[in-house]
TrEMBL record:
It comes from Pendulispora albinea. PANTHER family: HTH-TYPE TRANSCRIPTIONAL ACTIVATOR TTDR-RELATED (PTHR30537:SF5), HTH-TYPE TRANSCRIPTIONAL REGULATOR (PTHR30537). It comes from the Bacteria. The keyword Metal-binding does not apply. Signal peptide: none annotated. InterPro entries: LysR-type_TF_proteobact-type, LysR_HTH_N, LysR_subst-bd, WH-like_DNA-bd_sf, WH_DNA-bd_sf. Keywords: DNA-binding, Transcription, Transcription regulation. This is LysR family transcriptional regulator. Belongs to the LysR transcriptional regulatory family. SUPFAM superfamilies: Periplasmic binding protein-like II, Winged helix' DNA-binding domain. Residues 4-61 form the HTH lysR-type domain.
Length: 300
């Protein structure tokens, strides 16, 4: 039998121990589809059915139970070996290629990289900035920091926090035009339109627990986030943006947040990397753990 994917074994063990594919996926921080594919691939390699499904849960077959008893200790040993290798920080070396978005990377990732490089002098870091969801394998990235809900993919993820999408305006604008109290009030206001957004004139909200999109209009249009923020601060209209992008303007009092009770659920931010598990490079594992500990961005 040739089994070259440790993540398939981990998926099987998690299914047996958690009692369902859904619980296993949640435990492994993988998608349900990914865990199901791993189980199917493992059963093909073994040549036998390992799991049987009942109306309430899944249980190992006799073959699956015996297989679990044999591989569980070996898998634990592999995990311990990988952890020990990753903890040998003085041995971690080489170039680490990291992807991040154009605005978030310099403001939040670079300070973490600087602290990480100071701690690990044998590691070099190359940061690639793009607002596209680039393919990690094609681009040669070791990991990427991504904002938003991830589509189904074989990538592993590590949650780092969440980001608020907010609506805001300048005090001078509110003094002249009034302060919106409900999302529908925006239809009577002038808004600054970010043309690079997917739906620049349709802004998302949550009203009575349900998603609602409000059509907005304005006189100033730009494809640049910084220009959009400056336009709002100058009183050209109401804007929307992730809070982390405009935090300095809020702290300075140049803009004020509105409609906070109608914000959509916070957007997840996570580190993504190839699903290599125990074979994950020491430098990648080290940086992922370091990033999770240092990057404080819960509802940022």
């Amino acid at each position: 039998m040739s089994i070259d994917r440790i993540d398939d074994l981990e998926a099987f063990v998690a299914i047996v121990e958690r009692g369902s594919l859904t619980a296993a996926a949640r435990h492994l921080r993988r998608t349900l589809q990914s865990v199901s594919r791993s189980l199917s691939a493992l059963e093909r390699n073994v040549g036998a059915s390992l799991i049987r499904r009942t109306t309430r849960r899944v249980l190992p077959t006799d073959t699956g139970s015996a297989f679990y008893q044999r591989i569980k200790p070996a898998l634990d040993t592999l995990r311990e070996a990988a952890l020990e290798a990753a903890q040998q920080s003085d041995e971690a070396s080489g170039r680490l290629r990291i992807g991040a978005s154009v605005l978030f990377g310099p403001a939040y990732i670079v300070p973490v990289i600087a602290a990480f490089m100071d701690r690990h002098p044998k590691i070099e870091v190359e940061l690639l900035l793009s607002d596209r969801f680039v393919d990690l394998m094609e681009s040669g990235l070791d990991l990427a920091v991504r904002i938003g809900t991830m589509p189904d993919s074989p990538l592993k993820t590590r949650r780092l926090g969440s980001l608020r999408l907010v609506v805001f305006g300048a005090p001078r604008y509110f003094a002249a035009h009034g302060r919106p109290e409900h999302p529908r009030d925006l239809m009577k206001h002038v808004c600054v339109i970010r043309t690079a957004d997917r739906s620049p004139t349709s802004w998302p909200f949550q009203v009575h627990g349900k998603p609602v999109n409000i059509k907005v209009a304005g006189r100033f249009f730009t494809d640049d986030a910084a220009a959009s923020h400056a336009a709002v601060a100058s009183g050209l209209g109401v804007g929307n943006a992730p809070l982390w992008q405009i935090r300095p303007l809020v702290d300075e009092g140049a803009v004020e947040l509105i409609l906070a009770d109608f914000e959509t659920p916070a957007v997840p931010i996570q580190a993504v990397f190839p699903a290599t598990n125990a074979r994950l490079g020491a430098k990648t594992r080290l940086f992922t753990e370091f990033l999770a500990a240092r990057l404080k961005c819960e509802n940022l």
